[in-house]
Amino acid sequence: MAAILSLDPTRTALLVMDYQPGILGRVGDPDALLARMARAIAHARNLGFHLGYVRVAFEDADYDHIPPSNKGFSALAGTRQMKASDPASAVHPAVAPARDDIVVRKTRVGAFSTTDLDERLRGRGVDALVLAGISTSGVVLSTLRDAADRDYRLFVLADCCADLDPQVHEMLMTKVFPRQADVITSRDLAAPGSAARDDE
After folding, report:
1. Average pLDDT of the residues in 36-49
2. What's the pLDDT score for residue 94?
3. Residue 195 lies inside a defined structural domain of this protein
4. For an engineered disulfide with 54, which of 32, 100, 111, 178 has Cβ 3.0 to 4.6 Å away?
5. CA–CA separation, 178 vs 98, rounded Å?
6. Mean pLDDT throughout 7-19?
7. Per the domain annotation, does 198 fall within a domain?
8. What is the largest CA-CA distance in the chain?
């Protein structure tokens, strides 16, 4: 897609969200998903994009601040899953961040509400985001809506997102996300003439 390649790379960031062992195991064919995400990261670095990583992980005090009214997270607080020090909550090594990448830890669904991600992106002059994450109906949807309200230009990497329900994933990609973002694939990130533009 020409639109993505016409962006100013110094003002664009690829966000890799919730690519964690404890989450990847919930979706179909995680190895293929990781391979596509790794190629997309390589393409983004080749283009000169910023890279941002978002992971959900909790310290003990974070669990204590999840109220029973939070349907999605209260059960997790009870079992103490996704603890910050647990390998299951780390970014998967196949797509691990580099030293200068932005890395944030969140305690809710979206990438912005419990982190300083927006401030760190703005500090680098970023005003366009390419979103990839697990799940499509969770972190991707929440982050897209919030980012749109913050006036970022948005792209979603359809083949680097996954959901527990493939039908929900498809519906969001075809009927909901295009209202606020351009839906593309990892192939669209490959720079012209790049050897990385291979069969995926």
Report:
1. 96
2. 98
3. no
4. 111
5. 31
6. 97
7. no
8. 53
pLDDT score of 75: 79
**d(Cα 115, Cα 106) in Å, to the nearest integer?**
6
The tokens for 185 are 């694939």
Indicate whether 157 belongs to any domain. Answer: yes
Tell me the backbone φ, ψ of residue 122, rounded to 5 degrees: -60, -35
Q: pLDDT at position 29, please?
A: 92
The two tokens of residue 17 are 């969200």
Give yes or no for a contact between 21 and 200, defined as CB atoms under 8 angstroms apart: no
| Distance from C-alpha of 184 to C-alpha of 23, rounded to nearest angstrom | 23
Average pLDDT over residues 31-49: 96
- What distance lies between CA 178 and its chain's CA centroid? 17
Look up the pTM and report it.
0.93
Tokens of 119: 């401030």
> Is 32 a domain residue?
yes
List the structure tokens of 178.
């295009």
How many domains are there within the chain? 1
Find where tokens 């190629």 sit: 39
Catalogue the E-assigned strands of 92-166.
102-106, 128-133, 153-157
Environment class of residue 188 by beta-carbon count within 10 Å: exposed (0-12), middle (13-18) or buried (19+)? buried
Please give the average per-residue pLDDT across 60-86, as a whole number.
87
For residue 125, give the CATH number of its domain.
3.40.50.850
What's the pLDDT score for residue 28?
Answer: 86
Q: Which domain holds residue 93?
A: 2-189
